[in-house]
Amino acid sequence: MAKLNMMRFQLCAMQKDRKRILEYLQVKEAAEAKSVEPAEAFGKIDVKAEHDAFLSNAEDIMKALAVLDQEAPREKPFLSFLQGRKAVPYSEIERIAEGAGKLLTSAQEALELKREMDAHKNEIQLFEAQLLLLDAWLKLPEPETFSGTKKTTAFIGSISGEHAPEGIRELLAAHFDGAESDRIHIDVVFSRPEQTNFYLIALRRDESAVEEALRKIGFSRPAAGDDDIPSARKEKLRKKIEDLNALIESNRKKLVAMAHLADDFEHLQDYYSMRAEKYAVLNQLALSKHAFVLEGYVLERDAQALKDELESHYAASFEAVPAFDDEEAPVCLENNSFTQALEGVLESYSMPGPGEFDPLPAMSAFYYLMFGIMFSDAGYGLIMAGVCGVCLWKFKNMDENWKKNLRMFFWCGVSTVFWGVVFSSYFGDVVNVVSNTFFGHEVGIPPLWFIPMNEPMRMLIFCLAIGLAQLTFGYVLKGARAIKAGLPLDAAWDAALPILLIYPLIIVLMGSDMFYGLASFKLDLSPSASQLLLAVSAACMIFIVLTAGRQSKSWFKRILKGAYGLYNILAGWLSDTLSYSRLLALGLATGVIASIMNQLGAMGGRNVFGVILFVVVFLAGQAINFGINVLGAYVHSNRLEYVEFFGKFYDGGGRKFAPFGVHTKYIKIEEAAKNG
């Protein structure tokens, strides 16, 4: 359970074997390539255009696949996302490669059909909007563009407000100089509180006066119109919408007829992804007329097998040397399933840097322990562990990331069950509430240790003790790292002294009356023992002041830095240890909220309605409590690892080993699957 040794390799081979060698390395998924600086007689090839073309094709295939799944959804089994990628022989990739051009054409045809459908739908929306506008003009007997006859003029338009013909006439009369209002005809075709549509007929000789009066009352003409009356235009628009819907349905049927290509599209998308990754490696090669050079990283355990395979089948030379001093070397971790499950949590922070331990073995036990204490309900833990366990058992082929996540939550669930039993929390106090409410006699399951809600101070001390233990372990790892680097004095000054400083103070505190008032117990220490312990702490403080700033040549700066270092150590012990009080806070929150939900559900009393109410409130309330507190336990477990624990010994800064391989979404090569 540690970081695997990494080697830096150089592969020299003939150009004629380049394709087969790269395909072999891709299927083996054992080597990470890096860019080669070409020597004399070697050069680089620019395949960025081809690489981008493969990525573009993969994106088109992905979009076409989404179109087919939208128009002709495939039946997928329950929890299909846990099924994992399908293992296929390499011959399947070759089959897809042979028909790639035809499949890509089909995919582009599907996208074009979809684009046409979307365009038609946009047109339909536009026509439907026009229909809505036409509803206000359907009673108009003439086209909206009608302007009158030889002797009459027509005005078609709207004014704000709701008006009858006589009301409009009165509004206009206020702006006429003569008797023009008696020589006009007004018909209202639409009237609502916000707007009135009408048409007005007047003598041609009164056109200017009428137009000026209309302008003054806020008259506006329709925004659009043609030579058809509105009712005829409505029928034309409806016919256009029908025709467009027919075209949409025709395209949809064509897409449904292409649904059988969905699986091939999946394979083709993965094929193009593989090709893009291969061309990304090609861009890193150094090439001459007859040979090529590839450099990168390989695990020490795989180096000899790769060397034997390549040199026995090709005219090639494969040389690998340890990459201990290479700061660019990637990191690969190997752990058992219990520890490996937390790799995702570690990667979210940072992989180990050069010279650092794999922190997973150190963090895993504390992580599961703290998660369980914060979630701390046997019912919740049983659900979590049960669901994750069943998924792990049923879906053997799921992707590795899903496996890690489910394993992590499985072990978190096991820890939660354990602490729920220890603290007697089963969906809060559901046993007590149900027995008392519906059976008239309260019974409960006694805790194996104590109930935190009844003894919060005892729980707080327990949580702080866990924090103290993890922080101490962090200093131990810091010392081990210094010793591994050949710096035993650094281990003494930076790791041993902080531990020797704090523990005597803790022991003295545990022998005080103040501690007894908090914990109801204390250590029996003699005055001489207390003085000795305080003397040890004082001596450590002096040594810390003298050594914390040892990098400075000036004694004045050294003492100042030493005093600051002592302050950081003391403040760090205090603040970091107190941070573990969140274990108490979240643990109590889980139990208290669950109990409140139970009590709310029991308010219906001992009757049929009360039973129904309890079941409904119990299911809804416990589900909400589960979701909120599982998220809180996850977030705060990560925080305690990242900030308090890693802050003592871990820098990170490494990057994960990313071998050239078959990084696909839907399929995996059987050979690669066997190696994985």
Straight-line N-to-C gap: 18 Å
Structural class of the helix and strand makeup?
alpha+beta
Strand residue content: 5-15%
Helical content class: 55-70%
What's the quick description here?
With 676 residues, the chain is of the alpha+beta class. Among the domains are: 145-221, Alpha-Beta Plaits (2-Layer Sandwich), CATH 3.30.70; 337-649, no CATH class. Helix content is 61%, strand content 10%.
Describe the structure.
By secondary structure, this protein is α+β, with helices and mostly antiparallel strands. The chain is built from 23 helices and twelve strands. Strands 2, 3, 8, 9 and 10 form a five-stranded antiparallel sheet that branches. It has a three-stranded antiparallel sheet with strand order 5-7-6. A two-stranded antiparallel sheet has the order 1-11. β6 (184-192) and β7 (195-203) form a beta hairpin. α16 runs antiparallel to α17, α16 runs antiparallel to α21 (581-601) and α21 (581-601) packs antiparallel against α22. The longest helix has 42 residues, at 608-649.
Key terms:
single chain; 676 residues; alpha+beta; Alpha-Beta Plaits; five-stranded antiparallel sheet; three-stranded antiparallel sheet; 23 helices; 61% helix
Topology:
Blueprint: E1 2-3, E2 6-14, H1 18-28, E3 31-34, H2 48-71, E4 86-88, H3 90-98, H4 100-134, E5 152-160, H5 165-173, E6 184-192, E7 195-203, H6 207-216, H7 230-257, H8 262-282, E8 286-287, E9 291-299, H9 300-313, E10 316-322, E11 333-334, H10 337-340, H11 343-349, H12 360-375, H13 378-394, H14 400-423, H15 430-439, H16 456-484, H17 488-510, H18 513-519, H19 527-547, H20 555-579, H21 581-601, H22 608-649, E12 667-669, H23 670-675
Parallel strand pairs: 4-12
Antiparallel strand pairs: 1-11, 2-9, 2-10, 3-9, 5-7, 6-7, 8-9
Helix pairs in contact: 2-4, 2-8, 3-8, 4-7, 12-14, 12-21, 12-22, 13-14, 16-17, 16-20, 16-21, 16-22, 17-19, 19-20, 21-22
